[in-house]
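Reviewers asked in the last cycle whether our approach scales beyond single polypeptides. To address this, we selected a multi-component target totalling 231 residues and predicted its structure end to end. The input consisted of the following lines:
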Amino acid sequence: AQKVTQAQTEISVVEKEDVTLDCVYETRDTTYYLFWYKQPPSGELVFLIRRNSFDEQNEISGRYSWNFQKSTSSFNFTITASQVVDSAVYFCALRVDTGRRALTFGSGTRLQVQP
Amino acid sequence: GAVVSQHPSRVICKSGTSVKIECRSLDFQATTMFWYRQFPKQSLMLMATSNEGSKATYEQGVEKDKFLINHASLTLSTLTVTSAHPEDSSFYICSARGAGGRTEQFFGPGTRLTVL
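The resulting structure, written as structure tokens, was:
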């Protein structure tokens, strides 16, 4: 079975601070995909990134960056110079290439960026 | 990316009534659709997986007689909450995946169900 742990329930920062959201996953499969989604108050999930298990390169997209480390089974997400519009719930998710191939979501981290 | 729609976006109903939620893939054929449920301030939990033309596979603890899923075409899946009760109030989100095991899933915008 798969499991995704987001230990941080809620984080509050002041605008322009950097913030890192942690994600730790568990799976016995060797081929898997990791995702981050943003869920604003409207509820619609916004896809941020997908990373496969064979690609450990870190990725940067604007103010967003991701650090994938298989050795620690972690896929952390950093927002640089946070903005009020970044306030949302962020979900880390895992999908394996066997079985139903549905996403297993972490419990989410609520990020509040104060002006 | 591909577009998935859900209808209605919001529904309020009386206890004991049935509610149907539609999930449509607008620009691709979805061989597999997933239904998730999200209670307030909680994560998304997979309810069931449906493949076009087959019976849905339900996750443990999800009553298949209460949550009827139909995936009769490659662009439409429906979830019917039968005899809804207040504890069924939740945010229901579908996702759709095209043919081929490794293709991406695309999420619908969700349906907020409130049962009075």
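The longest strand of chain A covers residues 88-96. We regard this as preliminary and will revisit it once experimental data from Aim 1 are available.
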